[in-house]
Amino acid sequence: MSRAPEFIPLSDTAARAVAGANSRHAALIEDAFGVLVETPGGGVSVTGDTKARANAKKVVQALAARADQGLEINEADVRVAIGAQRTGVTGAGNLPIGRRGQVAPKTATQAEYLQALAKNELVFGLGPAGTGKTFLAVAHGAGLLLRGEVERLIVSRPAVEAGERLGFLPGDLTEKVDPYMAPVWEALTDILGADQLRRRREKGEIEVAPIAFLRGRTLSHAFVICDEAQNATRLQMKMVLTRLGEGARMVVTGDPSQIDLVNSRDSGLSHAVGLLDGVKGIGVVRFSAADVVRHPLVERIVRAYDADAAAASPGPRG
């Protein structure tokens, strides 16, 4: 096979982004596909056999396109592009543009998650905080709403701190519920902007409520997000999952290691996944500490807690 170099013309900005600081991004591409990546000026040169060169070229072009949109390229973006090329998992699809630019996956698992959301009527997203489970689900749902593919976006989570008995709190329903939904409102504001969020909320196109408020309803032509689902009981989880009506889709997110229920064995999330994993139309995506996209220290904290939990777990009996 030919190992002749192929030159890819790029803007100076894109070429610098593809190469990365101290050629770190180029090195990742080289290691992934067994090619040589050079930046002689005016673009990027890729040397390798035909197939490897073609794969590396697509990664280079994907990264260059992001750079030309004014988006920052970091190592996570490079790894996602490499993983997408290797597995055929595409990137952000038709996600909306948030306040910080185009919403896009930062890890290969995030890209897998978005593909699962596009393909399945029901998706479970499991993993630690900071992996983007909720934010990407909200972004996907907002995209469906903006394109008219669903009529409503409904986000629900257990209000464990108040036992879902909110009557004793001061104020109207919105004032009682909002403190428990702050992370969801933040994500919606980031993606839609405050004005559009307010308008769509007033029109009933966006609803955020505790799980208890879904009881007895049929949710049709809606995208439903059940967030922090590790704190839903088995009965609540069954109730939520059976709310799906015509033209509806749902994503259930949570961290099975962070259960706040008095009886952790009553958590409905792991129970539901165990029952439904492998059922047609249902996808399960598992995130790990490697997918944490908050401050780098968060990933190290998650790993430390995971290691402690593993050490405390009883080993197999002889």
Describe this structure in words.
- With 318 residues, the chain is α/β, with parallel strands linked by helices.
- The chain has helices spanning 12-19, 24-33, 50-68, 75-87, 108-119, 133-146, 173-177, 182-192, 194-202, 234-241, 268-276, 296-312; strands at 6-9, 36-38, 43-47, 97-98, 101-102, 122-126, 152-157, 206-210, 222-226, 249-254, 282-286.
- Strands 8-7-9-10-6-11 form a 6-stranded parallel sheet, with helices on both faces. The protein has a 3-stranded antiparallel sheet with strand order 1-3-2.
- It is globular and about 65 Å long.
- The model is unreliable at 161-175 (pLDDT under 50).
Q: What attributes characterize this protein structure?
A:
318 residues, alpha/beta, Ribosomal Protein S8, Chain: A, domain 1, 2 domains, 6-stranded parallel beta sheet, 3-stranded antiparallel beta sheet, 12 helices, 11 strands, 15% strand, globular
Write the CATH architecture name of the largest domain: 3-Layer(aba) Sandwich
The total of helices stands at 12
Q: Classify the helix fraction into a percent range.
A: 40-55%
CATH topology of the largest domain: Rossmann fold
What is the element string, with H for helices and E for strands? EHHEEHHEEHEHEHHHEEHEHEH
β-sheet strand percentage: 15-25%
The biggest sheet, with number of strands, parallel, antiparallel or mixed sense and barrel status, is: 6 strands, parallel
So what's the CATH class of the largest domain? Alpha Beta
Query: Low-confidence parts, pLDDT < 50 over ≥5 residues?
Result: 161-175
Quaternary form: single chain
> How are the strands of the largest sheet arranged?
8-7-9-10-6-11
Give the overall shape, derived from the CA principal axes.
Answer: globular
When the domains are counted, the total is 2
Helix/sheet category: alpha/beta
Span between termini: 55 Å
